[in-house]
């Protein structure tokens, strides 16, 4: 299998990726690979597909909301999509951006803080559960954190403060949406993922509890 190059990754995006951002994305790749040996941040088999599986998957959110300057990544974990967004936004035009990396596990927060510091990223690491965090941001997002019914609960406070909700989901998203509909009312739009045709980028609007 041929692994995607940084240039091939960039070519799939409408959002322009600067060379300086590519360099920092590569540095993050190096940090992730080194720390993954001791922290199990991502599946080791996914590292050779870093540019497609992780970077493109995360970066495609900026194609959907290129105007958004403040983001909250819930369950930021290994930094996807939050660190990727922070790197790309750091080298973008417009008002100063900021990404909030919300993570409940302290050891992962230490990893995220190291990356933020090493790359001088416009990001804040918050060591807390997402449902406890009260922030006003343009977009709330998450990847591989929880089934949709729980994820909407994590994001509810952000959405009610005006955040647009965009989530990266896998091939089981249809059943997740059905289950979520038993607890929540919402409007949803789905888009095929640029990184995997089985995945979906989910846009949730008008969230409300129905039970």
From TrEMBL:
It comes from the Bacteria. This is Ribosomal RNA small subunit methyltransferase G. NCBIfam families: rsmG_gidB. S-adenosyl-L-methionine binds at residues 75, 80, 130-131, 143. GO terms for cellular component: cytosol. Specifically methylates the N7 position of guanine in position 527 of 16S rRNA. Its main location: cytoplasm. Belongs to the methyltransferase superfamily. RNA methyltransferase RsmG family. Gene3D superfamilies: Vaccinia Virus protein VP39. InterPro entries: rRNA_ssu_MeTfrase_G, SAM-dependent_MTases_sf. Keywords: Cytoplasm, Methyltransferase, rRNA processing, S-adenosyl-L-methionine, Transferase. It catalyses: guanosine(527) in 16S rRNA + S-adenosyl-L-methionine = N(7)-methylguanosine(527) in 16S rRNA + S-adenosyl-L-homocysteine. One of its GO terms (molecular function) is rRNA (guanine-N7-)-methyltransferase activity. It is found in: Cytoplasm. Its EC number is 2.1.1.170. It holds the Pfam family GidB. The gene is rsmG.
């Amino acid at each position: 299998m041929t692994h995607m190059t940084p240039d091939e990754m960039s070519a799939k995006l409408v959002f322009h990726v600067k060379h300086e951002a590519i360099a920092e994305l590569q540095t993050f790749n190096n940090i992730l690979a080194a720390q993954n040996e001791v922290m199990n941040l991502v599946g080791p088999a996914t590292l050779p597909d870093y540019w497609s599986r992780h970077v493109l998957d995360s970066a495609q959110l900026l194609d959907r909301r290129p105007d958004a300057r403040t983001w909250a990544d819930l369950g930021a974990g290994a930094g996807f999509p939050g660190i990727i967004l922070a790197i790309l936004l750091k080298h973008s035009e417009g008002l100063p951006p900021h990404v909030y990396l919300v993570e409940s596990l302290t050891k992962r927060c230490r990893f995220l803080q190291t990356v933020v510091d090493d790359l001088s990223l416009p990001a804040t690491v918050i060591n807390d559960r997402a449902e406890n965090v009260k922030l006003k941001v343009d977009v709330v997002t998450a990847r591989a954190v929880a089934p949709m019914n729980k994820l909407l609960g994590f994001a509810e406070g952000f959405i009610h403060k005006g955040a647009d909700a965009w989530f990266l989901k896998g091939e089981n998203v249809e059943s997740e949406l059905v289950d979520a509909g038993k607890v929540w009312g919402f409007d949803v739009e789905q888009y095929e993922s640029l990184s995997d045709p089985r995945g979906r980028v989910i846009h949730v609007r008008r969230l409300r509890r129905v039970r």
